[in-house]
Amino acid sequence: MVPFMPFMNGPGGGNGYACLVMGISAPKRELADLEPVLVMALGSFRVNPEYARQYILRQRDVFGKIMEAGKTLRESSEIITKGWERRQKTHDILSEKWSDTMMGTERLYDPDSGEVYEFQNGFYDRYRLDPNAYRMDNLQPLPDGDHTLWMRAPLDGPSHL
Questions:
Q1: Which side of the chain, N or C, has fewer Cβ within a 10 Å radius?
Q2: What is the pLDDT of residues 60-69, one digit of tens each?
Q3: Do 81 and 158 fall within a single domain?
Q4: How crowded is residue 139: how many other Cβ atoms within 10 Å of its Cβ?
């Protein structure tokens, strides 16, 4: 037997092909005399065409079932992956917020450029009293659900003001 799908415990696992490998052998001095008879004996083996046809039909049926199982597994996997990705984005944002809290920082961004800046906590309270006093006068807190902004590496805010 030769493995068709070498993995086990999954759809299609354990399928294989049957191969018949034949050869002739005889003691060195006798091979020349026995070769025609041995070759004729090997030539007498035949695979019944109906047997081969039935085997191919069974394998098509098995493969169809494997494909059905694979489709179901793929659909299930996609549902799980999408849920994970949605959860992951929320989790990523919460992790960044927690990091800011622990570091005593806050993030602001410029809606015009999309750049994110990091400042010490409390800066925005002073900034919004007179934003025109700064070179960048349109800084805003990061929107809670904007994963793209929360994942950007923040620039040093004070050095850009």
A1: N
A2: 887 788 888 8
A3: yes
A4: 23
Question: Tokens representing 83?
Answer: 């849920």
Using the structure block, give the residue that is written with the tokens 């410029």: 110
d(CA 7, CA 9): 7
Host domain of residue 11: 1-46
CA distances from 46 to 1, 20, 37, 43, 50 (A): 18, 11, 17, 8, 11
Q: Is the pTM for the entire model greater than 0.70?
A: no
* Residues 93 and 136 occupy one common structural domain: yes
Q: pLDDT tens across 33-87, in order?
A: 999 999 999 888 887 888 878 877 887 887 788 888 888 888 888 888 888 777 7
Residues 67, 128, single domain; the answer is: yes
Using the CB atoms, write b or e for 72-84: b if 16+ within 10 Å.
Answer: eeeeeeeeeeeee
3-class SS of residue 153: coil
Residues 6+ positions from 4 with CB-CB distance below 8 Å: 12, 15, 16, 17
Look at the chain and report how many structural domains it folds into: 2
With contact defined as beta carbons under 8 Å apart, do 18 and 58 qualify?
no
